[in-house]
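Q: Please design a sequence for this.
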C-alpha cells in the first residue's frame, strides 16, 4: 500500500505545484492591481498545499525500510528534492494544470475548471481514513472555496462581457475541454486506496462537476463542446511537452547549483 499511497500523495502535490508555478507567471502582469494580487495569492495557496503533501510523502519515504528511487545517493527525501529533482515522467499531475497560460481568459478558465474539481475532491478527501491527508484537505478546502468563487465570477464577467471577451473565453473552452475527463479517470494508485477509504472515487464527482460548470457557463453565455476526444496520461507520468518547459524553468537553480540554499 505504501507505493500507492506515495503515488497518490505526489499526484495531489504535483497538481497544485504545477498550477501554482503556472499562475505565478502573472505576478506583476495581471490586468489590474487587485487581480494581480488575487492570482498571486492563489498561487501561494496552491504552493502551500503542495508543500504539505510533499512533506508528508517525504516522511513516508524516509521512514520506509525498502529502498526508493526517490532517495538520491542515499540522502533523505525532502519537499525540495521531490519538487526540484524529479524528472518529467516522475510527475503525476493531470494534464489540465500544465496547459499554457495563454491570455487572462484562458488562465481564469483553467483555474475554474480545476478549482471546481478540487472543491469536490477535497470535500470528500477531508473524510479520508488517512488522518494527514484529511487534515491537509480540510485546511485547503477553505482556500479552494475562494478560488472557485473568484474564478467563477471572472468566467461570467468575461463570457457575458464584450464580443471579444466572449469569443476568447469560448476559444479557451475549446482548447481546454479535452483535458477534463482525466480528472474523473481513476489511476491505479487511486483505485488501490479506495478499499481503505484513503482516496476518493473521482468518477463519482463527474456529474456534480458538470452541473456546477453548466450553471456558470449558462450565466456566462458559454457552451461546453460535445464529443471532444479526451487526452489522458498525466496521472501516469505521460505529459505534454509543456511540462518539460515548466520544470526546466522551475528546477534550473537547484539542478545548476545542487544543494544551494538561501
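A: Design:
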Amino acid at each position: 500500500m505504501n507505493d500507492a499511497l506515495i503515488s497518490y500523495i505526489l499526484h495531489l502535490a504535483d497538481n497544485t505545484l504545477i498550477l501554482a508555478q503556472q499562475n505565478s507567471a502573472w505576478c506583476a502582469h495581471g490586468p489590474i492591481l487587485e487581480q494581480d494580487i488575487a492570482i498571486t495569492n492563489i498561487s501561494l495557496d496552491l504552493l502551500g498545499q503542495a508543500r504539505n503533501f510533499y512533506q508528508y510523502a517525504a516522511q513516508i519515504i524516509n521512514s520506509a525500510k525498502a529502498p526508493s528511487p526517490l532517495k538520491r545517493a542515499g540522502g533523505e527525501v525532502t519537499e525540495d528534492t521531490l519538487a526540484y529533482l524529479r524528472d518529467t515522467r516522475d510527475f503525476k499531475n493531470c494534464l489540465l494544470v500544465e496547459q499554457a497560460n495563454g491570455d487572462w481568459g484562458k488562465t481564469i478558465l483553467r483555474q475554474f475548471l480545476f478549482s471546481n474539481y478540487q472543491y469536490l475532491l477535497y470535500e470528500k478527501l477531508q473524510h479520508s481514513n488517512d488522518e494527514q491527508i484529511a487534515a491537509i484537505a480540510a485546511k485547503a478546502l477553505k482556500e479552494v472555496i475562494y478560488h472557485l468563487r473568484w474564478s467563477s465570477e471572472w468566467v461570467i464577467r468575461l463570457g457575458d462581457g464584450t464580443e471579444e471577451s466572449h469569443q476568447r473565453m469560448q476559444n479557451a473552452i475549446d482548447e481546454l475541454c479535452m483535458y477534463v475527463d482525466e480528472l474523473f479517470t481513476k489511476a491505479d494508485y487511486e483505485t488501490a486506496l479506495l478499499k481503505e477509504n484513503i482516496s476518493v472515487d473521482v468518477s463519482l464527482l463527474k456529474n456534480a462537476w458538470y452541473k456546477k460548470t453548466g450553471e456558470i457557463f449558462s450565466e456566462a453565455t458559454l457552451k461546453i463542446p460535445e464529443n471532444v476526444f479526451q487526452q489522458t496520461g498525466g496521472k501516469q507520468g505521460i505529459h505534454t511537452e509543456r511540462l518539460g518547459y515548466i520544470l526546466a524553468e522551475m528546477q534550473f537553480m537547484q539542478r545548476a547549483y545542487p544543494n544551494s540554499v538561501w
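Q: Thanks. Anything notable?
A: The chain is about 60% helix and 0% strand. Residues 15 and 93 are 5 Å apart (CA to CA).
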